[in-house]
Amino acid sequence: MNEPERPSTIAEGLPAFIALPEPPSFDAITVQRVIGALCGSAVGDALGAPFEFLPAGSYRARFPEPVLGGTGEMCGGGTFNWRVGEFTDDTQMALALAQSVLASGGFDADDVWARFVAWRRKAKDCGILTGRVLSRRDWPGAAYDGHVALNRSAANGALMRITPIALAWSGVDEATLMTVARAQAALTHFDAAAGWGAAIAAALIRRAVLGEDPIAALPEVLARVEPDERERFAAMLDVSWEPNNADDLSNGSVWTCLAQAVWAVRHNDRFEDVLVAAIELGGDTDTVATVAGAIAGARDSVQAIPSRWLTYINGELETPEGVVRFDNAGLQDLARALVGRGPVAATAAEPSAGPTEVAPGVHAANLFGAQDAPVSWGVVSLCRTFGAFDGHAARREVFLIDQSGPANADPVTAVRDAVDAIDALLAEGRTVVVHCHGGHSRTGLVLKAWAMRTNGFTEREAHVWLSERWDQYQDYQKSFIELLEAEW
Question: FRET partner for 196 with CA separation of 20 to 30 A, picked from 51, 236, 295, 455?
Fold first, then answer.
């Protein structure tokens, strides 16, 4: 007997397959915003997870001041006993969606469904609605049945996983992107509001990736929303709206979750402050921080994400082919793939150099020399490490590019992060090694910045100081010298 023909749409106007566009021609800075969106969402998820279901104010009650040493505020635990830095179902579903898009050459409802079902079988956590829907044998009719069974489906589960769609379709017109966002939502969420919330978030992420102010773009984005759905979103995304109003639904709803995330982005200029503000609202903290982290990460770039959080991000995804594990580097490469870029390849090895002490407790090295550091040492890495320091409990992976021209979206924040890490690890009584791949330019930049702040040196005084102590140091990168002279 012939199989029945597969539906060509998920819901009215929402195709079951939408092909990927041609990869966009993004420059290095834009790619760093792409990476910031995906990594920012995962960091928000992992940072917020231990506080899920807790009342407002719980984050500051535990961390009244920033924790710059150790694993920072990545504490693990919570309702589902998450590991330090482990992301939750929010990121897992986003990763399943990302893998499907790359494997299928677009949004393919059948493939996404198969990946969601494979993930659900062993998921540590899954929303009530999503779990019920994915228990069905196939997707046609499943979202409607879930809606009827629970008498609602305007939840935040389709919103929380939207970042890969925003990135993969970031180079096309906004209307197409919003259609894809609504289509993926309709697989599990029958209520149109769930899809429109995901579409609004996707558009804001796209605008931020392209260098626009996502908050300023809200009126234009909202103008694309169907009138029947627009009024409620517009009211809750307005500048006058404040969180935790008695009349609002919980932040498990798509409206309140998105409103709280946008509120956190609107009122905070730094990525770090955005996430803290989102988590401080309590309730579904991981999901609000996931959405806020995606928008803020796209706005501020990966270089604005504190390395004490990003370094420790980790998790697994159950796929139809088996378990896939992700860390910071894996998420960065996945983000690159979503905009047509290949993974970062290992650079040719250089002879081992260091660790060499340049100040009490502070050492310089290149990548291969740093691998001789005892596991008790703190490691500040300024390049890809390919897992070389996973055995070090105290480590930092700082995103910093050694290229001429506009190569770094926010180098001042990245350098400050690295210098803060050196001081925090020293304050814990650790010996610290700072390295990049060759130990030349990036290592020199950070160690000079540290010496300038510690000793009051000028850039040229720091240059002489380091030249006398570290024979691999080179200062060929003019932009690094200018940064220290003008902005440090």
Answer: 51
In terms of Cα–Cα distance, which of 351, 352, 350, 362 is closest to 427? 362
User: Rounded distance, CA 274 to CA 268, Å?
Assistant: 5
Q: Calculate mean pLDDT across residues 120-130.
A: 92
Strand partners, 364: 356, 434
Domains identified in the chain, total number: 2
% of the chain surpassing 70 pLDDT: 99
Cβ neighbours of residue 255 closer than 8 Å, sequence gap 6 or more: 154, 193, 197, 232, 233, 236, 248, 249
Bridge partners of residue 356, in order along the sequence: 364
Tokens 């540290």 — which residue?
Answer: 450
Predicted confidence (pLDDT) per residue in 70-79, tens digit: 999 999 999 9
Helix (H, G, I), strand (E, B) or coil at 83: coil
195 and 318 assigned to the same domain: yes
Tell if the pTM clears 0.70, that is, is over it. yes
| Domain range for 261 | 9-338
CA distance 205 to 164: 10
For 17, the enclosing helix (H) or strand (E) is strand 17-19
Distances in Å between the Cα of 113 and the Cα atoms of 187, 333, 424 are 8, 24, 45
Residues 228 and 324 in one domain: yes
For the residues 199-210, what does the mean pLDDT come to? Answer: 99
